[in-house]
Design a protein that fits this description.
The protein is of the alpha+beta class. It has nine helices and 14 strands. It has helices spanning 11-27, 49-65, 95-99, 169-174, 178-187, 196-204, 218-221, 224-230, 257-264; strands at residues 39-40, 46-47, 70-73, 85-93, 106-113, 116-124, 129-134, 139-143, 149-150, 163-166, 190-192, 210-213, 234-236, 249-252.
Amino acid sequence: MSDQPQPTLSPRLSLALEAALEAGRHTLRYFRQTELAVERKDDASPVTIADREAELLLRERIAAAFPDDAILGEEFPERLGTSGYRWILDPIDGTKSFIHGVPLYGTMVAVEHGGRSILGVVYVPAMDECAYAETGHGAWHQLGLEPVRPARVSRVATLGESLFVTSDVPNFRKHDRMDAYLRMDEACRLSRTWGDCFGYLLVATGRAEVMIDPVMKVWDAAALQPILEEAGGTFTNWQGERTIYDGEGIGTNGLLLEEVLAMTRKRA
C-alpha cells in the first residue's frame, strides 16, 4: 500500500469521480464493436450512441444529486441552474480513437464556479486509469486496483529533454499554426500524437512534459486545468493565460511553460 495520505473528496468531486467511472465503463459496451454506427455532427466531428448514452448517464446522476446546478455537455443542450455551480461534461474525449478501437480516449467531468474550473476527473476506461483533482486539495492518480497516489508533473527542465504530445498534427496546419508545431518538434527530444485528454494525463503524471492543442472546446479543457495545476503544472491558452475558454490549450509541467510560449506566441 502507498504511504501517502488518501484524498478526502468533497460531495461534488465524489459524485464526479463516481459518475465518470460509471459512464466511462458504459462506453466499453460499444468499444471495438465492428458494427458501431458513427454519425457526423455539423462541425464534421464524429459521434456515436456511446457518446450520447454516457452523457445522459452523467446528466441523470448530477441532476439527481445537485438539482440546482447547471450542466453543459458536448452532446445535448445546456441545462441552466441557480446554485452558481456548472458541470461541464465530455462523455468521450477522443471519439476518433474510440471508433477505431484505440484505447486513448477518456470520459471527462468538471465543475465550474465563479468562472473557474474548480475540479476535474479524467477517466480512461479502456486502460482503467484515472486522474482527478479539486483546487486546493491536490491531484490524484489511480491505475486499476492499485492504491491512489498523488499525481505529479515531471521535473524535466529543458525542451531538449522533453516529450511533446499533441492530438492531431493537421490541426496546426488548418489553424495556420504549423510554424509552432515545427518549432516544438525540432526543440523537443521526442514528439508523439498520444493526444486528446490522454496526452494531458501523461503530463499531469510526469510521463510527458508538454501537450498542445490548437483547437479545443470548453468541455475538452475544463477537467484538465485543475488536474494539471494541482499536479504542479500549468494549463493555459497559447498566450499563457489561465483560461479554458479560448479554444486552444497548452499543458506543461510548469518548468517549461515560458519556453513553450516562446514557440506558440505569434510572431510579427
